[in-house]
Write a structure and sequence with these properties.
Blueprint (H helix, E strand, L loop, with lengths): L1 E5 L3 H13 L3 E5 L2 H11 L8 E5 L7 H10 L6 E5 L4 H9 L4 E4 L4 H14 L8 E3 L2 E4 L4 E4 L2 E2 L4 H12 L4 E2 L1 H8 L9 H15 L7 E4 L3 E4 L5
Parallel strand pairs: 1-2, 1-3, 3-4, 4-5
Antiparallel strand pairs: 6-7, 7-8, 8-9, 10-12, 11-12
Helix pairs in contact: 2-3, 4-8, 6-8
Length: 230
């Protein structure tokens, strides 16, 4: 499987390549935003399409946010793990809003990075049922497609994974730790607060624009997705 690493720090790029190659991946590199965008676009739809992209946020020529946004606008849904030296949930939410699937703040553990990449690659190949329906909220897991009423709702792969897990347990309270164990790799050692970022992102997309409250917070217990879609 091929992984694209887009990072302007040559030393870090080399370390990432070495670590990923030790895990059996074939790694291609780009040192700036335009180069990363060109490579990802060119590989899309070919036999050499990337299994995942490791994408730095602060890049010369074009930021990682811009690269990610342009790929998603072009219909390229290759899983993207964003790297940044920034810290804080607002930066993280920015990355998720433009279509990133996961987010890792520098400095990071290589064990965690490899686990995150492995999880993104593995999740992309899972067999999924044809359709999940909760009132007028519909999910088609095979295509990572979501609709509210007749309107398409664009979700990142990780947002979809969180929503799909809630949908499969509709009407039941699920804890943050359950979501982490299911949606993230078992080696993930970050805090469960990341779940809150994704829940807020989902609410902005499937609830707020439609005046709904499908995803409910159960204080001290977790979250519940209404069986009727809210």
């Amino acid at each position: 499987m091929r992984i694209l690493v887009v990072e302007d720090d040559a030393r870090l790029r080399e370390l990432l390549r070495e670590g990923l190659e030790e895990e059996g991946y074939t790694v291609e590199e780009a040192g700036d935003g335009p180069g990363g965008l060109t490579r990802a676009m060119a590989a899309h739809g070919t036999d050499g399409e990337y299994a995942a992209v490791v994408l730095d946020v602060m890049l010369p020529g074009m930021s990682g946010y811009q690269v990610c946004s342009r790929l998603r606008a072009a219909g390229v849904w290759t899983p993207i793990l964003m790297l940044t030296a920034k810290d804080g949930e607002y930066d993280e939410a920015d990355g998720l809003d433009v279509g990133a699937d996961d987010y890792l703040t520098k400095p990071f553990s290589y064990v965690v990075l490899i686990a995150r990449v492995r999880a993104l690659v593995r999740r992309g190949g899972l067999d999924r049922p044809e359709l999940l329906e909760l009132g007028d909220l519909r999910l088609e897991p095979a295509a990572l497609a979501c609709w509210r009423g007749g309107e398409n709702v664009v979700l990142t792969a990780k947002e979809f994974a969180v929503l799909e897990f809630l949908a499969r347990r509709a009407g039941q309270v699920v804890s943050k730790s359950e979501i982490v164990r299911t949606v993230w790799d078992t080696a993930y050692d970050g805090g469960a607060n990341l779940v809150e970022v994704y829940i807020r992102a989902l609410r902005r997309k499937i609830d707020v624009p439609y005046g709904r409250t499908a995803i409910r917070t159960i204080r001290g217990a977790g979250y519940l997705l209404a069986r009727d879609g809210g």
